[in-house]
Amino acid sequence: MPKSTHHQNVSSPRGLAQQSVRCMSSRRSQTGTGQHSSPTVFPEKRGKTKSLKQSDDGVANEGPEKVKAHEHRIDIGDESSDLLGYDVFCGKLALDKKAKITSADERMGSGTGNPDSIDARLTSKALIWGSHMLRLEDVISVSYNSGLRHFLVHAYPVTKRSCGLSCFLKPQRIRKDFRFLAPSTEEAIQWVSGFADQQCFVNYLPHPMVSGKKQAPDIVTSEPLFDQLYFKCKSPPKVLVILNPRSGHGRSSKVFHGKVEPIFKLAGFMMEVVNTKYAGHAKELASTVDFRTCPDGIICVGGDGIVNEVLNGLLSRSDQKEAISIPIGIIPAGSDNSLVWTVLGVRDPISAAIAIVKGGLTGTDVFAVEWIQNGVIHFGTTVTYFGFVSDVLELSEKYQKRFGPLRYFVAGFLKFLCLPKYNFELEYLPMTKEAVDSQGKVLEDQEKIDMSDLYTDIMRRSKTEGIPRASSLSSIDSIMSPSRMSGGEFDTSGSTLASNEPSEYVRGLDPKSKRLSLGRNNLVAEPDEVLHPQPHLSSNPNWPRTRLKSRTDKGWTGLTATNDSRGPWAATALYDKEDISSTVSDPGPIWDTEPKWDTEPNWETENSIELPGPPDDVELGIKKELAPKLEEKWVVKKGKFLGVLVCNHSCKTVQSLSSQVVAPKAEHDDNSLDLLLVNGSGRMRLLRFFVRLQFGQHLSLPYVEYVKVKSVKLRPGINTHNGCGIDGELLRVKGQVLCSLLPEQCRLIGRPARDRM
Ligand SMILES: Nc1ncnc2c1ncn2[C@@H]1O[C@H](COP(=O)(O)OP(=O)(O)OP(=O)(O)O)[C@@H](O)[C@H]1O
Question: Where does the record place Low complexity bias (predicted)?
Answer without folding.
Answer: 477-486
